[in-house]
Amino acid sequence: MLGSLRLLGRFGPLSRLVRASKRREPPQVSEEELLAVAEAAELSDSIEPEERELIGQIIEFGDTVAREVMVPRTDMVAISEQQSVDEVIGVVIQHGYSRVPVFREGIDDVVGVVHAKDLMRAERVQGGGSPAVAVARPAHFVPETKRISLLLKEMQTEQFHIAIVVDEYGGTAGVVTLEDLIEELVGEIVDEFDVEEPMIERLASNTVRVNGRVHLAELSEVLRAPLPSGNWDTVGGLIFNTLGHVPGEGETLVLDGWELRVERVTGRRIARVIVKPVSVGAGE
Predict the structure, then answer these.
(1) Which CATH number fits domain 71-139: 3.40.50.1240, 3.30.1360.120, 3.90.1280.20, 1.10.3720.10?
(2) Strand, helix or coil at 65?
(3) Residue among 100, 124, 127, 128 at smallest CA distance from 112
(4) Which residues, other chains included, contact 194 with Cβ-Cβ below 8 Å and sequence gap of 6+?
(5) How far apart are CA 118 and CA 112, in angstroms?
(6) What does the alpha-carbon distance between residue 87 and residue 159 come to, in Å, rounded to a whole number?
(7) pTM of the model
(8) d(CA 39, CA 34)
(9) Same CATH fold assignment for domains 71-139 and 142-186
(10) Inter-residue contact 250 to 259 (CB < 8 Å)
(11) Which CATH number is 200-277 given?
(12) pLDDT value, residue 225
């Protein structure tokens, strides 16, 4: 929360609010009050809509945990310690990643992280047939409940860009990168190497296509409507838990006035979902 206040202090009229609070030491200001101030400032044209949105993202940043932003283990790209430098360079080129976890017995046994620049150096000096694990660097592990504001500070202080997220049983839950954390503040960062489909794509008639990994809070904000909460974080988790089985492509679920149609399933993972109000196309 303090980190959020420091960042908020950079925005026009809010900076005066923060500086004044330091001088007079008034009662603590809640997140809801800060958001209300930002919304009022936007309505009075004191700040731009983009600035108000960034303020909201900064406030949410302090409450977000690693589990909510990580790439889940089912989507992780990792390599075995048995693979050669040439093989891993191929993986790096195929997926466009600069850092890849290395495992021993399985994905729950991560032993390090290989960097693309180290692989290129090893290929030139030792040859492409040498084991990639020989140039692996130590892996950093964080619990899935770790606040990402603290994780970002650790990454800055200890100078690492990727962390393995572990669950309460010590297994690998996923992976989180510095880019993932920054995107929570400023939105999606897309470069010339990114070929992934958008996480949320607006379609016609108040309809959206979403990745199954999209968090319900984010989708609710886009739809401007609440969605059922429970022991799940994502759209895919909501569908799985409500249906009680792995859905087939085209299977539809209706909840709270919204129709969720599974568009694509990859293995046992819900990849894409079409979400629209029940009234849209109801008569078709």
Answers:
(1) 3.90.1280.20
(2) strand
(3) 100
(4) 96
(5) 13
(6) 27
(7) 0.65
(8) 9
(9) yes
(10) no
(11) 3.30.465.10
(12) 86
Provide CB contacts within 8 A for 133, sequence distance 6+.
81, 102, 111, 112, 114
| Token couple for 261 | 């149609």
Which pLDDT score is estimated for 86?
A: 94
Q: Are 271 and 210 in contact (CB under 8 A)?
A: no
Tokens 């330091």 belong to which residue?
A: 22
Return the CATH fold of 142-186: CBS domain Like (3.90.1280)
* Residues 208-242: b if buried by 16+ CB within 10 A, e if exposed: bbbbbbbbbebbeeebeeebeeeebbbbbbbbbee
**Contact present, 55 and 161 (Cβ < 8 Å):** no
pLDDT digit string, tens, across residues 92-137: 999 888 999 999 989 999 999 999 999 999 999 999 899 999 999 9
Q: Which residues of the chain have pLDDT under 50?
A: 1-11, 21, 280-284
Coil, helix or strand for 266?
strand
